[in-house]
Amino acid sequence: MPTPEEIQALTEEIEERKAEKQQAREEKQRKRLQKKRAEKLEKLASPIILLVTVLIGLAIWLL
User: Are the C-beta atoms of residues 22 and 30 closer than 8 Å to each other?
Assistant: First the structure.
């Protein structure tokens, strides 16, 4: 039968593993969100550039 110290050591080891797994999950989620934001920005870049170009062209034409 394990002693209370052994049980405590095993419990701490299990808690450490849980914390490491949780940290890995959070990091993966952070990277996923960062990737989504980058994709959104990439999708919006072309229309924004087109709009700015049209507005500059219109401003030049009106002057």
Answer: no
